[in-house]
């Protein structure tokens, strides 16, 4: 039986991953800070209340997993957030630090605690949730996009380090996904502003991302899906902006 460890499982993508793999018969460890939300995932999922930014707490929680769930086959590093959309010169430094601590340090903490076991067992799959923001800049994306560029490059570098171990690494990079708490969190709880982002368009859903993650995980052992980038059809690219002098 496969054991899957999902971070950020109390909402959005992470909850969809937990449900998807549990429905498949996998053992799922679901990690986040909000215990009540994790409990709502049902009795088939083992809740793990931990803040991924807390290095010692992450290491201890993983060390203390019950033997039934200790041999993790799939680590899904999904916990993450964007805070604010102000240009860099007006952004809040605390927001920048929280994004860095969660999206980069949190992902490092979980990977560092779980990877040695995978290598020792010569099997495993690290699936990191990046973003199109890693590759395509946008106004107000500043540190959020930079943290996701870290996720992308860390994923590729892990593949080099894990050469010959049998452990796989995938980075899944979605564009706009609706129906999660992502934009509400980004706009400090302003649900109306968050909802407005998706007016008149059909975004991806958390289940679409779960499908991509599940597909990557279910490939035969000789196949490594390096990167999956997906967007809603309604989202695409625009030309570079050009600032012109008046007159
Ligand atoms: N939605 C999008 O458009 C989109 C697009 C591309 C990429 N992404 C990425 O996809 C991932 C999931 O996003 P989502 O849309 O599902 O957002 P979401 O609904 O806000 O879920 C974020 C999850 O991360 C958890 N989390 C945040 N800080 C944490 C911490 N310090 N320790 C442990 N867990 C923490 C939250 O749980 P607690 O608050 O309970 O701890 C929550 O379960 C993020 O990495 C995000 O950057 C989202």
Automatic annotation (TrEMBL):
Keywords, alphabetical: Oxidoreductase
Domain of life: Bacteria
InterPro entries from the UniProt entry: NAD(P)-bd_dom_sf, Sc_DH/Rdtase_CS, SDR_fam
GO MF assignments: oxidoreductase activity, acting on the CH-OH group of donors, NAD or NADP as acceptor
Pfam families: adh_short
Protein family according to the UniProt entry: Belongs to the short-chain dehydrogenases/reductases (SDR) family.
Protein name: 3-hydroxy acid dehydrogenase / malonic semialdehyde reductase
Phylogenetic lineage: Bacteria, Bacillati, Actinomycetota, Actinomycetes, Micromonosporales
């Amino acid at each position: 039986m496969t054991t899957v460890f999902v971070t950020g499982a109390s909402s959005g993508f992470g909850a969809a991953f937990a449900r998807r793999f549990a429905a498949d018969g996998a053992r799922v460890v679901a990690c986040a800070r909000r215990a009540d939300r994790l409990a709502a995932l049902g009795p088939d999922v083992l809740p793990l209340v931990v803040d991924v930014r807390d290095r010692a707490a992450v290491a201890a929680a993983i060390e203390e997993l019950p033997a039934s769930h200790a041999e993790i086959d799939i680590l899904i590093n999904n916990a993450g957030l964007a805070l604010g959309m102000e240009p860099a010169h007006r952004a809040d430094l605390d927001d920048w630090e929280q994004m860095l601590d969660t999206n980069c340090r949190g992902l490092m903490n979980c990977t560092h605690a779980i990877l040695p076991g995978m290598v020792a067992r010569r099997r495993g799959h690290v699936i990191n949730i990046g973003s199109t923001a890693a590759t395509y800049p946008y106004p107000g994306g500043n540190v959020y996009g930079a943290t996701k560029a870290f996720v992308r490059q860390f994923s590729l570098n892990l593949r080099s380090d894990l050469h010959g171990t049998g452990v796989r690494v995938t980075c899944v990079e979605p564009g706009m996904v609706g129906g999660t708490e992502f934009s509400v969190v980004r706009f400090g709880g302003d649900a109306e502003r968050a909802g407005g982002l998706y007016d008149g368009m059909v975004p991806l859903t958390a289940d679409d991302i779960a499908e991509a993650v599940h597909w990557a995980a279910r490939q035969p052992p000789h196949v490594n899906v390096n990167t999956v980038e997906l967007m809603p059809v309604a989202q695409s690219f625009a030309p570079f902006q050009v600032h012109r002098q008046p007159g």
